[in-house]
Design goal:
Length: 365
């Protein structure tokens, strides 16, 4: 537990609201009744939910730049920084494994990938990368990685199929998962957080590091906003046109997906920074700041609380099924009933987040 350092209010708020959105998307009142945009796109395309994970990884990149640039300036030994980065990555990965095995802890069906696992790996790689490269080198690493991933996925035939294909479970990334990924996979024969797609997800965080480095320059706040919005629009537009040949796809974390979502995240950061840090409109940010102060802790607690609020049976149904069915029976639209329960669940998670924040306890996983 550590004392929270001084940060951009906009970044803390954006981190918190992103985690809240992630929990809403992960825990609807009913899987059967969910608004389209609150579902992950089945394959090609983009919904609101598809934007959440890359936005969080982008924020991780911004945070790396803001935190470690100061440490480097202060002369902190790199060896000590490496140690902290590695330990933090291992802790996040370990917590991800704990959530994957909960509640049965059956090692025979364990899954070695997931949201926290990807955050841990990306944080490890990008943290070390930030300490040893310039922003220009990071930019080139990002570009080369995206181009190489595009060429690999569109030119190398899938070995067990014999030709290039980008369909679910029948692409090069899925084949590599079946060949080398241990344990259970989320989709049986492939995993959306698998081996090959982790490389472009690292680039998502690199784009955040580039944005974070720019936020540290001596440009005026207005210039920062202008450049973030312009770069975000250009990046998203480039991703859109790249998507005409390499479709925007979260499951594959395609190169076009990286650019479209990173562009969106940059524009979102620019807009929130302008409203909150430049104009001083902090009203309404408190909820996001409270969630953001212990973002990963809140994410973990949501999975634990879900055992009671979603899995434990009260008679023949779980609590969420009782509530959603009850709301539908009095005339509430099914999708709205499901969303209302998800918002209620967010409120439950807000209680420990608020208590931790009030007591100035910041758990740094």
């Amino acid at each position: 537990m550590t004392q929270q350092p001084t940060r951009l209010i906009s970044l803390d708020a954006l981190r918190g609201f992103t985690i809240a959105a992630m929990i809403v998307a992960n825990f609807p009142g009913s899987e059967e009744y969910v608004y389209f945009t609150l579902r992950h796109t089945k394959w090609n395309g983009l919904s609101f939910t598809d934007l959440i994970a890359p936005t969080f990884l982008f924020i991780v990149g911004v945070s790396i730049a803001l935190a470690y640039a100061k440490k480097l300036t202060d002369g902190s030994p790199k060896g000590e920084l490496y140690r902290k980065i590695i330990i933090r990555s291992l802790k996040i990965f370990a917590v991800g494994m704990f959530l994957n095995m909960m509640p049965d802890f059956d090692f025979s069906t364990v899954r070695w990938t997931g949201t926290l696992h990807r955050i841990a790996i990306v944080f490890l790689v990008c943290g070390i990368l930030f300490l040893n490269t310039t922003w220009k080198q990071q930019l080139w690493i990002g570009i080369i990685t995206l181009v190489a991933y595009w060429l690999a996925m569109t030119l190398i035939p899938t070995p067990d199929v014999g030709y290039v294909i980008l369909e679910p479970g029948q692409n090069l990334a899925a084949w590599l998962d079946r060949k080398f990924l241990p344990g259970r996979m989320w989709q049986g024969t492939w995993d959306p957080e698998g081996i090959l797609s982790t490389f472009p997800s690292i680039v998502t965080t690199i784009t955040g590091m580039l944005a974070g480095r720019f936020m540290l320059t001596k440009t005026t706040p207005t210039e920062k906003v202008s450049y973030l919005m312009t770069a975000g629009l250009f990046t998203a537009a480039t991703g859109y046109f790249w998507g005409l040949t390499f479709p925007v796809n979260e499951n594959l974390w395609t190169s076009s997906f990286v650019l479209v979502t990173s562009g969106f995240a940059a524009m979102l950061l620019g807009a929130v920074y302008f409203l909150v840090d430049v104009l001083g409109h902090t009203k309404g940010t408190k909820t996001g700041i409270i969630f953001g102060a212990n973002a990963i802790t809140v994410y973990v607690l949501a999975d634990i609380f879900a055992l009671f609020f979603y899995r434990f049976k009260f008679g023949a149904q779980s609590l969420n099924e009782h509530v959603v069915d009850g709301l539908i029976s009095i005339g509430v639209q099914p999708e709205l009933a499901s969303l209302l329960y998800a918002l209620f669940f967010i409120g439950i998670n807000f209680i420990p987040a608020y208590l931790l924040y009030q007591r100035k306890i910041f758990i740094k996983l």
